Amino acid sequence: MMIRFYNARILTMEEGMPMVEGELWVKDERIAYVGEKKDTEGVTFDQEIDCEGNVLMPGFKNAHTHSGMTAMRSFADDMPLQEWLNTKIFPLEAKMTGQDNYDLTQLAILEYLTSGVTAIFDMYLSPEDIARACIDMGMRCVLVSGLNNFGPALEVMEERYLKLNGMHPLISYFMGVHAEYTCSKELLEQVSELIHKYKAPLWTHMSETKREVDECVERYGMTPPQLFDSLGLFDFGGGGYHCVHFDEKDMELFREKGLYVVTNPGSNTKLASGVAPVAEYLRRGIPVAIGTDGPSSNNCLDMFREMFLVTGLAKLRQKDASAVDGDEVLKMACVNGAKAMGLHDADFLAEGKLADIIMIDLHQPNMQPLNKISKNIVYSGSKQNVKMTMINGKILYFDGKFLCCENPEAIYEKANEIIARLSAE
Amino acid sequence: MMIRFYNARILTMEEGMPMVEGELWVKDERIAYVGEKKDTEGVTFDQEIDCEGNVLMPGFKNAHTHSGMTAMRSFADDMPLQEWLNTKIFPLEAKMTGQDNYDLTQLAILEYLTSGVTAIFDMYLSPEDIARACIDMGMRCVLVSGLNNFGPALEVMEERYLKLNGMHPLISYFMGVHAEYTCSKELLEQVSELIHKYKAPLWTHMSETKREVDECVERYGMTPPQLFDSLGLFDFGGGGYHCVHFDEKDMELFREKGLYVVTNPGSNTKLASGVAPVAEYLRRGIPVAIGTDGPSSNNCLDMFREMFLVTGLAKLRQKDASAVDGDEVLKMACVNGAKAMGLHDADFLAEGKLADIIMIDLHQPNMQPLNKISKNIVYSGSKQNVKMTMINGKILYFDGKFLCCENPEAIYEKANEIIARLSAE
Q: What is the pTM for the complete model shown?
């Protein structure tokens, strides 16, 4: 399968943010050529697409989400965090089946495609069902365990680690725990053994709320990052989701170990968790990626909103309009996300890289004039500008049409049926 | 001209947020019927539109903008406020012609339509040119003077007040001053005389930055709201744009006089000006409306982003996820904006009201499931959900197509030409 995109502006996202005017060829699941207009004689293309001057760039990596929570979107907003979790979310999740998770993940995938997301880092119930939904629709998915005291045992995580890695080119699996406050010390110690057995990185929700940090310090005399480090959990890398309430020592530890921060500003805002010190992470050279968190706490899966919030909230926090340059944010969304997720061939556009590509429509008023296209994407871009989303060489979304499934309406209907059933007494 | 919308969910935005399933008829520029399915026998419609279960609601009112600043979108981001204004914005504005303002306002109008904005409150150069652009495209526009020490004289404001009010059904004009820090006390006193002569409300940028407030207190021993009140400038109502740094006394004054706060969270975030105390305004019963501010400081004209920021930033400021309910925000965007702008017939959908109506597409993944549609609009809605924008009974935007102008590309080209000319040495 050969696809040729021509008449394009190509933001490869390589160092220096070059913008190449020319064309891009895709052969099967990889990029075969990126550069100036090229002689096509003797080459047979299955499809040739005139980009009309629009931008091709690497897709966004949603580096933290719980896709299956789509059922609970707008189910319970404007509530205090603990009440929301305990009275609204947990009771419903307890009733959710594997098939529900599959159906609800499919709904989330449709939304990712409209937002130019080409890979997700998903921590939720029954990863096998998430994987199935992603394979069926063509979404690239890095699964991560949300191990805790109340769910499936450690052995299940190890089994999944061995089974899900290598099962399909779109799927990989990382070890992880839900959070310090949902895991006993014994469980964390067992996880550490497993981490060392496989020399594997570890991922976790970390320091999302001040209360979480305070309680951890009370329990262990250490913050969550320091506790995890003391147990050897970060000996092979990985990182934390949220990372809102870090002290100097936490940051130093993340820098030293090369751990990733995945920031989730939409969720941290809506749940009033606080503003992560992103400018301080960058100053120390800590790599930052971006995630939406789940659609129940955000409530949308929109990387444009997240990108604006990453820089905007940093500007407010630092009281400095020059804090966290928009171009840095674009790198977080495209490149750092890929690296955090172990997708080393999906970071930028170049020959041999994976064809996880989006097209940004510049023929829209919010993208004009073209003073600086990368800044337009971060500061005024929106889902309406996503003209195409291609994953692994397959066009899954084009001009508002889903090519990844026959009937999106059926998926909407199922989501409505599921929430009606789950929320029934 | 009679248009019938049927098979609709109608969020009238009346008290209690009723959602009517049925139809809505438009006769010329006004609503002729809202209610359940109705017998159409004997009625001739020029157009009948199947809404397919989508939402009809009043359009958003962008209650503070400077439309003509589209030229400077992404022209100079990530810069400290004063450097940005003095080295990048003011020198360019000095070279801008009336025709530039017309062309750049047209670009902004295209973007407003994609965001469901049916009326704008616009303070910028040469209001005659803004009015012309709005009339030519069908946008409803409330102009407001940005009088200051350096621009056109007081007499020009009075002339415009008399000339522009009543010139066209889409256009009205309010008196206003740019800000305390750009007006001498003598000028403010003269404005007060004019306000009293016409018993007119007054509008101004107010307490946008802490520095502005501090310098005003240094000069006059009073905050900007207190100074304006002491000069009688608020004796006939009006209000302030931004209102980020208010003290207790300022708030009490706004409450007592029934003045409006127009909040601009996108701009206040990007320029690191601070977070307005919106929850505290609401607690006191101060009416709050929402504006995008100009596209050079935001950088987009997207009421969805603003709505999320209004509630999100309030939640962060109050450290309370239940602060500023999403439904309150929707009222600010639709109803309060209309009231602030003197558009008393554009506040909600009912027989006899102006047909300033938008259709929200629910057949998109970010709107599903339909747990609570009004919350979906505020928390997960985006421009991609704006299926139609109708102003004064005319459909100006439908299914991604602009019906208000023949060639949007020509408008984009002009904007690029203008910024190239303005920024040339």
A: 0.98
